[in-house]
Specification:
The longest helix is centred in the middle third of the chain and has 21 residues. It contains 7 helices and 5 strands. By secondary structure, it is an alpha+beta fold. The radius of gyration is 20 Å and the shape is globular.
Length: 206
């Protein structure tokens, strides 16, 4: 009589769970993220998941900055100042929209890419890949815990005023915000298929 191999079954179950988690994840706009967000223990779980990303030479080329509820007003002031830097004639509506973004989602993080210490074996692009993989881990973990999340950037994060406000060190740059909360609603966007991304190498003629 044949017997099922429990190790094989467990592996198949795990693969199915992972693929289902990845396939069902979708970005949820910050304005559609409501309380409750992850609590302190859950947030640590998300960051632990992020830390599992591939990291060549273990440089840890990223960090996350949490913007607490008591700092949202300061962030709104910063968004307004960055908007005025970009457009001194910004309308009242533009200013209001920029300020409102600071108050979305119950948990808000800033992802920072670190270019220091220098290492010829790990250029900045590779460090950015590590950050991207870390953020994907975090998004998947948030989805697994039942939360919605989204990455957002914008021109403000590239403003020198923004870098000063967050005391970014030399070699650091703000990349994006991570918004996390309970999804009020979500709209699934069309995604490409494997054939849209995968091709075979055909060596070019000398």
């Amino acid at each position: 009589m044949a017997h099922d191999d429990p190790d094989t079954d467990d592996g198949a179950d795990l693969a199915g769970l992972v693929l289902a988690l990845i396939g069902s994840r979708q970005s949820v706009m910050p304005k559609r993220l409501e309380a409750p967000g992850p609590d302190a223990a859950q947030l640590r779980q998300l960051v632990d998941a992020a830390a599992c990303a591939p990291d060549h030479r273990g440089l840890r080329p990223w960090r996350l900055v949490r913007i607490g509820d008591d700092q949202r007003g300061r962030l709104a002031d910063l968004f307004e100042a960055c908007t005025r830097d970009r457009d001194p004639d910004a309308s009242a509506e533009d200013i209001a929209r920029s300020r409102e973004k600071a108050h979305r989602a119950p948990v808000l993080l800033l992802a920072v890419l670190r270019g220091e210490p220098p290492d010829d074996e790990v250029p900045l692009v590779e460090r950015a890949i590590t950050l991207g993989a870390a953020l994907m881990n975090l998004l998947l973990a948030a989805h697994g815990l039942g939360f919605g999340a989204m990455l957002t950037s914008g021109r403000a994060v590239r403003n020198p005023r923004f870098a000063r406000a967050f005391a970014l060190a030399p070699g650091e740059q703000a990349v994006c915000f991570v918004s996390i909360g309970s999804a009020r609603a979500a709209t699934r966007r069309a995604r490409g298929q494997a054939a849209d991304f995968l091709g075979d190498w055909t060596p070019a003629a000398d």
